[in-house]
């Protein structure tokens, strides 16, 4: 639990971070090198708190909040007895290293040390301490009081426990944490931002668009600032420094030389009174007047940002939702970067990237493999219904939801407040949905999943209390019949196990043709804990997948197993990152539905029956339709 924090450096970021902490009732020590800097910082904090108080945005008085902040000119004194230190001194590697050593030497061994750096490797700062497991990045955005986002950056050695604690801490001070799982230069927001700004600059330098054309196009798609407005706002020198420093740490980006030329001329943007636009006086911001112009193609401008986001997703640096959130909260976009990609079309994004490679004669813009794979699968975005997100039409029933996007439908067990426990009503609705989907010619594959944190926690046992043994037998027969209708459905059904999958929930998943599970999923047959055995077919289907003794082990102990264990024993076929589970389930459906439907149906029937005469019979029946395909295949081989 973090009760007391020290912020080192009382500049632009440090004083803002201290203010955020005090607003949230945290005792804060603020350190800087000189008294007058600290005095100035406290004045700024006081001014800002009074404004917030007048607007009714804070409950306690500015004086009460200010009383939580103590100022120091010595790091040694300031860090002595605190739970967390947040370093916010200037972005100078040697200086930060020295400050880290001083913090390490003078603080308790359990004190967590965070840095607000934008570009220095966290792991290198961590190595200056004797506690690299307790060092991480907490990247606040400017101004900290206003900006909601904090990137929580994991260093090479940061422990899971510290990451967890710091995510909670960031939530506790009213901010939205986004976890950056690897210490990658530029983290998420800056990497995405500089792709856009640098590309805009290159296109202008090459005379393809004018500054106003670019900014007008970007404003038109809802970005809060055009690329050049934003560059001026950040400061051309700061922007060039960010691009150059991430490039020197391995990001494939060639800084646009116009930034350098402007820096050399002292045209630094708002702070110098002139950058790409002119301002009333140095440091006075006025939003540039831009005539609306329609010439620039927004997809050409934004595609490198999408490409970067795809790379971050593929590398597991952050999740799809987190990257969307980072662009909304960190860059003020009205929607996530992947939503933009889906709306513009993945095909358009890929073509734009190829065009940029042609224009620049480089490979910097080569489309990420994720984008190419999406194209292969026809996941072109909103127009096909599948992109980075799925765009389904819904049919809401009482306990389940059916999501349609031909050729795929999703049956979502939908009692999230009860972890999707299976009531009699739910069984009725699943049965009806299966009958409807079987006869729906547009639907060729089905995903079954759960809403919220669980696939399903099992049968709704509250219904058991009123049932006689005879009724329990009938209930079990009915449950098994529903699972059988999944198994016998003419369409392939994939279970996307998104969380707890227990008891009857697992029995439903066992009836599906293929099971894929999220990394965090837990599976089990815990009926023994209430003195029962599985009644929905697990005693038959579980041994078929995992062998008799393993099935007995699971059923007799009632213990849960992880998705990874389930995969090892053949109970699930694939384990997928949580945020990509639905995408992969749909990908699998699209892969299957791209094959001849009759062959898919026959595979299911033959495998389920285990009858080798039936296999031969189906093989023969299919051959009539297969002739043309065989001919085409042989032609291609010639
Ligand atoms: P700043 O120059 O405004 O403030 C830094 C403060 O640190 C100064 O007041 C300075 O006197 C003080 N300082 C220097 N040496 C010190 C020492 N040995 N002990 C204590 N204090 C010392 O810088 P800033 O813009 O607040 O940036 C701080 C950090 O935050 C940098 O790492 C920067 O990359 C990062 N950051 C900045 C922004 C931004 O928009 N300004 C946004 C995100 C992250």
From TrEMBL:
Its main location: other. The keyword NAD applies. One of its GO terms (molecular function) is enoyl-CoA hydratase activity. Pfam families: 3HCDH (PF00725), 3HCDH_N (PF02737), ECH_1 (PF00378). Keywords: Fatty acid metabolism, Isomerase, Lipid metabolism, Lyase, Multifunctional enzyme, NAD, Oxidoreductase, Peroxisome. InterPro entries: 3-OHacyl-CoA_DH_NAD-bd, 3HC_DH_C, 6-PGluconate_DH-like_C_sf, 6PGD_dom2, ClpP/crotonase-like_dom_sf, Enoyl-CoA_hyd/isom_CS, Enoyl-CoA_hydra/iso, NAD(P)-bd_dom_sf. Pathway: Lipid metabolism; fatty acid beta-oxidation. GO terms for biological process: fatty acid beta-oxidation. The keyword Lyase applies. It is found in: Peroxisome. Residues 186-279, 302-391 form the 3-hydroxyacyl-CoA dehydrogenase C-terminal domain. It comes from the Archaea. Residues 4-183 form the 3-hydroxyacyl-CoA dehydrogenase NAD binding domain. PANTHER family: 3-HYDROXYACYL-COA DEHYROGENASE (PTHR23309), PEROXISOMAL BIFUNCTIONAL ENZYME (PTHR23309:SF49). Monomer. In the N-terminal section; belongs to the enoyl-CoA hydratase/isomerase family. This is 3-hydroxyacyl-CoA dehydrogenase. It comes from Candidatus Methanodesulfokora washburnensis.
């Amino acid at each position: 639990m973090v009760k007391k924090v020290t912020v080192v450096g009382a500049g632009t970021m440090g004083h803002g971070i201290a203010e955020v902490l005090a607003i949230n009732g945290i005792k804060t020590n603020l350190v800087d090198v000189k008294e007058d800097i600290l005095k100035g910082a406290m004045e700024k904090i006081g001014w800002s708190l009074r404004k917030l108080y007048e607007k009714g945005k804070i409950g306690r008085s500015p004086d009460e909040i200010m009383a939580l902040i103590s100022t120091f000119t010595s790091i040694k004194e300031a860090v002595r007895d605190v739970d967390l230190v947040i370093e916010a001194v200037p972005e100078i590697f040697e200086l930060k290293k020295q400050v880290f050593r001083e913090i390490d030497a003078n603080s308790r061994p359990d004190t967590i040390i965070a840095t607000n750096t934008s570009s220095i490797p966290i792991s290198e700062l961590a190595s200056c301490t004797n506690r690299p497991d307790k060092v991480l990045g907490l990247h606040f955005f400017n101004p900290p009081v206003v900006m909601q986002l904090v990137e929580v950056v994991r260093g090479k050695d940061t422990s899971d426990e510290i990451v967890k604690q710091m995510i909670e801490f960031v939530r506790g001070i009213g901010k939205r944490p986004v976890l950056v799982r690897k210490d990658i230069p530029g983290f998420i927001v800056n990497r995405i931002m500089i792709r856009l700004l640098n590309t805009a600059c290159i296109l202008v330098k090459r005379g393809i668009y004018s500054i106003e054309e670019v900014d007008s196009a970007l404003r038109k798609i809802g970005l809060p600032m055009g690329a050049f407005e934003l560059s001026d706002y950040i400061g051309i020198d700061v922007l060039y420094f960010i691009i150059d420093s991430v490039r020197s740490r391995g990001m494939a980006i060639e800084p646009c030389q116009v930034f350098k030329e402007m820096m050399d001329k002292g045209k630094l943007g708002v702070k110098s009174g002139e950058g790409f636009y002119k301002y009333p006086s140095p440091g006075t911001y006025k939003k540039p007047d831009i005539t609306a112009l329609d010439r620039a193609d927004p997809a050409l401008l934004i595609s490198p940002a999408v490409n970067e986001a795809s790379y971050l997703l593929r590398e597991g640096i952050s999740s799809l939702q987190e990257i969307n959130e980072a662009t909304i909260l960190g860059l003020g976009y009205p929607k996530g970067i992947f939503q933009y990609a889906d709306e513009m079309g993945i095909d358009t994004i890929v073509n734009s990237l190829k065009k940029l490679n042609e224009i620049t004669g480089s490979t910097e813009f080569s489309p990420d493999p994720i984008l190419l794979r999406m194209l292969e699968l026809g996941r072109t975005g909103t127009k096909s219904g599948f992109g980075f997100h799925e765009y389904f039409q819904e049919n809401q029933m009482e306990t389940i939801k059916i999501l349609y996007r031909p050729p795929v439908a999703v049956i979502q067990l939908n009692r999230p407040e009860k972890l999707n426990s299976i009531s009699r009503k739910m069984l009725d609705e699943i049965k009806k949905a299966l009958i409807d989907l079987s006869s729906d010619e547009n639907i060729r594959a089905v995903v079954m999943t759960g809403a919220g944190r669980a696939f399903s926690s099992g049968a709704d046992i509250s219904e058991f209390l009123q049932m006689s043994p005879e009724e329990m037998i009938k209930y079990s027969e009915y449950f098994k019949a529903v699972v059988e209708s999944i198994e016998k459905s003419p369409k392939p059904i994939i279970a996307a196990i998104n969380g707890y999958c227990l008891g009857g929930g697992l029995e439903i998943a066992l009836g599906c043709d293929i099971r894929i599970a999220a990394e965090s999923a837990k599976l089990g047959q815990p009926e023994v804990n209430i003195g029962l055995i599985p009644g929905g077919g697990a005693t038959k289907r579980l041994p078929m997948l995992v062998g008799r003794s393993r099935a007995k082990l699971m059923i007799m102990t009632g213990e849960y197993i992880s998705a990874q264990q389930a995969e090892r024993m053949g109970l699930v076929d694939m384990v997928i990152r949580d945020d990509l589970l639905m995408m992969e389930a749909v990908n699998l459906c699209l892969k299957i539905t791209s094959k001849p439907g009759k062959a898919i149906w026959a595979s299911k029937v033959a495998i389920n029956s285990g009858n080798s005469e039936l296999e031969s019979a189906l093989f023969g029946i299919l051959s009539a339709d297969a002739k043309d395909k065989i001919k085409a295949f042989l032609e291609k081989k010639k």
